[in-house]
């Protein structure tokens, strides 16, 4: 017994450790092989990091409008062809690729890779989606494969969504501690592949995670009075890209002017967009 225990401890020591709300769910919780070899921080490839001055467009559905004069396009990892990504980059834009890291979507090509035990409650308001047990080794293997897909398609960075399951009704035994571990796992794996990585929402853990992520993507921090927390990102020269969906911002010019003044005061890159993120409505506070 003692010899076996020593052997087990030695084996563990020789491996790199990879780590083990809201009421209704909106886009603030979702818009939509083998474990990778560990790479030491000194061996990580260099990668692009967005600047505080960068501007953005976010579209996940519909025919992609590639004509906006912005620095960054945030688009769907699965649905966007490689040719579109390359064309955006040739035009001088960086491309961030969106995927859900905290939910299983039954229309995705890799959905069958999830096990029944990996999934918890359905996401309220989002048909075909269920929260994921982010402690699961199988879930993490799938996310590594998605990051590999981002590399193969030429993405400059990634936006992993639904990384605040612990703060929602997931039906799973998630906690603030397991969420920090998972989010840091995602950031580490992205960086190991030369990808910039965004922290999506998870407003309760901004201070804990600012050093791990390169920028932030937020939904509705103005509507929910959460924008002040993002000062920790901008103070570290890490930009914050914000989307707001309230109808008043689209229909009321005065409300939009107030929104944009607040965005400027918080140094946020704010867009007014439709919840479907299909480019049917777009107002930018910057131009």
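Sequence proposed for the structure above (287 residues):
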């Amino acid at each position: 017994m003692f010899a076996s225990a020593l052997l087990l401890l030695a084996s563990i020591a020789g491996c790199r450790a990879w780590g083990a709300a809201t009421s209704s769910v909106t886009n603030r919780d979702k818009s939509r092989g083998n474990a990778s070899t560990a790479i030491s921080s000194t061996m990580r490839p260099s990668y692009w990091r967005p600047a505080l001055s960068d501007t953005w467009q976010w579209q996940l559905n519909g025919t992609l409008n590639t004509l906006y004069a912005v620095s960054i396009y945030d688009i769907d990892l699965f649905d966007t062809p490689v040719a579109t990504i390359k064309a955006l980059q040739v035009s001088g834009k960086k491309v961030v690729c969106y995927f859900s890291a905290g939910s299983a979507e039954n229309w995705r090509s890799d959905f069958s890779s999830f096990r029944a035990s990996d999934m918890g409650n359905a996401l309220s308001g989002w048909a075909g989606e269920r929260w994921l047990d982010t402690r699961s080794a199988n879930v993490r293997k799938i996310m590594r494969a998605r990051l590999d897909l981002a590399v193969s398609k030429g993405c400059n960075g990634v936006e992993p969504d639904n990384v605040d399951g612990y703060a929602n009704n997931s039906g799973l035994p998630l906690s603030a501690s397991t969420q920090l571990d998972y989010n840091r796992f995602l950031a580490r794996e992205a960086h190991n592949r030369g990808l910039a990585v965004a922290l999506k929402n998870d407003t309760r853990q901004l201070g804990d995670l600012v050093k791990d992520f390169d920028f932030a993507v937020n939904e509705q921090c103005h509507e929910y009075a959460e924008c002040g927390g993002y000062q920790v990102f901008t103070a570290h020269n890490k930009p914050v890209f914000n989307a707001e969906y309230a109808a008043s911002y689209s229909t009321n010019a005065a409300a939009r002017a107030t929104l944009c003044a607040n965005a400027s005061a918080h140094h946020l890159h704010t867009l007014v967009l439709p919840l479907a993120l299909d480019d049917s409505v777009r107002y930018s506070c910057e131009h």
